[in-house]
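Protocol step 4 of 5: obtain the predicted structure for the target chain.
Materials: sequence only (see below). No template structures provided, no constraints applied. The aim of this step is simply to have a reference model before the mutagenesis design in step 5. Sequence pasted as it appears in the construct record:
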Amino acid sequence: MCLGKYYITTCEIKTLCEIFGKKYDMEKVMNVTSENFNEVVLNSKVPVMVGFYDKFSAPCKILAPKMEILAEEFNEIITVTKIDVEFNQNIVIDYFVKNTPAILIFKNGVVFERIIGMSSISEYKLMINRALED
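Step 4 output (structure tokens):
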């Protein structure tokens, strides 16, 4: 996560949350695979934010806490999910994901919007709000 010009790790965010009495739960973002992609993403009645990640990518590790924050903030309004690109190549190919991190918003079973690479949490919020307005 970026705080001004400083990047902080997931562990540091967890520590800060504990200091300030906030709960930091890494389980708010649902893990999606080839087996449940249709059910969770394509058949969803609400917009779905899908984060394509590579567990060895530093930008993906920076994105993870942002997705947790979005999952908590938009709880029950949208579904926030993640897909490991290493183990779900068919989905990666189907949606032309060539770089990670990649964020795709699905609405009514189709890609509504996408961002490839890192972006600010406010940009992700704008993206979600556009999907909710349309």
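Step 4 remarks: The chain has one domain: 26-133. The two ends are 29 Å apart (CA to CA).
Proceed to step 5.
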